[in-house]
Amino acid sequence: MVWRNLLISYAAVILSFLGAVYWGVAMIVKEMPIKKRNVMLSWSVIPSIVAWIGLLIPQVYGLIVMSIFFVISFFMDMQLMKSEAKPTWYLPLRFQLTVVVTTCLVTAAYLVKPVLINV
């Protein structure tokens, strides 16, 4: 259905954007230890890879994988924000958005009609 295609595509774009936050922080914070910078730069590409895979696999699994990864990304943001300066609004907003997006993705996955294979 068209609405599921739009939802999963939009989710993939937003998940990729969340990875970009880490790239930006790694570039801006000058006094960051090189090991931590490398971890952040490495992590920054993982959400977009997961999103891409989520678009390639059967849609019901892609919706589930992306919903799980939005939650994982939120917990990574919590870890990041413990050690870096952050706006006070960021984590509460991320939490609200994570709840909304995972609810939408899980609901869409639930509504996908399973394909029955006749053997």
Automatic annotation (TrEMBL):
InterPro entries: DUF3429 (IPR021836). The chain crosses the membrane at residues 6-29, 49-75, 95-112. It comes from the Bacteria. The keyword Membrane applies. Keywords: Membrane, Transmembrane, Transmembrane helix. Pfam families: DUF3429 (PF11911). This is DUF3429 domain-containing protein. It comes from Candidatus Methylopumilus turicensis.
